[in-house]
Input
Amino acid sequence: MKQYIVIHEHDNVAVALVPLPKGFVLADGTVLNEDIDLGHKIALKDIKAGEPVIKYDNLIGFAREDIKRGDHVHVHNIRTSLGDNNEYTYAPMDIKDVRVEEEYFEGFLREDGRAGVRNEIWIMPTVGCVNSVVKKMEAEAQKFVSGSLEGIIAFNHPYGCSQMGDDQENTRQILADLIKHPNAGGVLVVGLGCENSNIEEIKKHLGEYDEKHIKFMICQEHEDEIEYGLSILEELSEYVKTFKREKLSTSKLVVGLKCGGSDGLSGITANPTVGRFSDILIARGGTTILTEVPEMFGAEQLLMNRCVNEAIFDKTVSLINNFKDYFRSNHQTIYENPSPGNKKGGISTLEDKSNGCVQKSGSSRVIDVLEYGDTVKKAGLNLLSAPGNDLVASTALAAAGAQIILFTTGRGTPFASPVPTIKISSNTRLYEKKTNWIDFNSGELVDDEDMTLQQIGMKLYDLVMETASGKPVKAEQEGYHDLAIFKQGVTL
Output
């Protein structure tokens, strides 16, 4: 297997693919001055203080001090290059759209024409006060699960009251998006009765809806709310069981792209694998969504140059600058990232992380930019405004219409989201250690010298198609389902 990699010929650092000892000699004659751990960087030349450090053929920071050839390049001797809002220029790349014949998966066709990859009943509380109620309903309603009804799931969250402004609107919009999600064949919306985001307010955000598909109850109006809720769930279950899997086009698939707990291999194995998958799906008429805006900082120009036109470029500039303004409005620096786990895995600066992060977007054109709470309207690669937090961003992807989420990680995490979340390890060691968390090993890309990016991308594509057709992911097998809403302001 490969022991290290120089990602691009213009890079002045290499990345260790296995732990390398002091004295190890690279092919270009560079001698390691110290032990270098998996995922960490090695200087390929002398880099003077203030000079750029280049990885992925892009700037990932500046040297804090003189760095000698063979030195370990990390947080102790590299600093971020990021600062205030940049001036951006639209320099569109010459991208040829690739189209191949559509393929098919076995999914559930909804009455609005969208496709579900699961046929579940979701119990959605309008306010955190009824979290225990909906969880009790979930437990007692499992007796209704049979036939094509694949699960009854209650989603807890702490919001719906004591919120102001954008926070309250975000709660209402995200709940409305999820209530209408195609993976749910039926939904029971449970309110308390006195909350700010009450059922009547949620209905305003729903717009038109199918009364067979969505039911409502207000706990304060019923002597025994559990008994009443179960009666609705029994009725819903009979309706949901009328849906059957059928052959549906890949053009109906929407897949969210997310990474978390990244390491030094994430931008070399897992994220490029997802990027190749994204290109493969888009070529078949499908849609992908890239989010976690703070982890685009430092690599945003790469996305801007792929925008389909200047209007989408302008929306991407606003996407980036608005998130920087959000940081500053809360008196935070925009580069307060990566996390301790990221750093332990070999990521030194936010630009280092971001240039690896955007690998998930592949090479397709950016076709649209979505605000938080928006849903997908155009097929192809979409950008979505949401933070980097794993649970918040993954929920936002589901709310935007993703039926499946691909989540790359070098550290591992058990979390889930409202939709099937495929965990993709950047390295084989994690895949073998956390078999109950990880669904796919992109570490093969460096373990097997004959493995190409196209081959592993197709392998991931095959897994996504199996998942879309009903194969449960590890988090589903464990019974994990999570939901988190973006909160920015005051709690009353």
